[in-house]
Amino acid sequence: MSLSTFRKDIKKLSNSEKAQFLQRFFKTGKGEYAEGDIFLGIVVPVQRQIAKKFKDLSFDELKELITSKYHEERLIALLILVGRFKKADENEKGKIIKFYLDHRKGINNWDLVDLFAPKILGEYLIDKDKSLLYKFAKSKNLWEKRIAILSTFVFIKKKDFDDALKIYEILLNDKHDLIHKAVGWMLREIGKIDLKTEEEFLKKHYKTMPRTMLRYAIEKFPEKKRKAYLKRSPIHN
Questions:
Q1: pTM of the full predicted structure?
Q2: Lower CB density within 10 Å: C or N end of the chain?
């Protein structure tokens, strides 16, 4: 399957009404976090089908997709990369990671980060040096910071919390709502596996962490405990 065939298929599947809805949903207006992003109006299940059909596109062809102005084309490129990553040997995984990092400018909305950072960068770094994630956590770029957070999801699932918590500490004073939500979400995921570890982190930081971050972190707590945290009052077991 060629890129020209891909373009023809995409054109047929575009839906202008759906595209307008998605552009509002993903905050693409002036001054919003995804300003200028353009949607074709193709839903994710259909994009997954397209990715399977065009799974053998070359890296040069994938470069055209990941640098495309169209959101769906960038997402499909990432879907193809994930499919290859799962089957790749260590050498091929290295090539995929290099491609992912070299073209991260195209990973510029929360769905593009959340769906793929754990499955590509997180998986790759499980048994490797994680200094890149600390670098991203300190970046001025919103999406690099969110990549750092979401990549830790894989570590959390393996009950390895150390790097995750250190990265979250770096981002405690971040100003962006999307960072607050992501950190709170990951803290909640830690709590599902090890509530004691989550609460140790919260008791250290809950009085000063952003309220949205705290709300996400304690979402599943019993009501009485949740209210106590939100009042920023002393927490007792």
A1: 0.93
A2: C
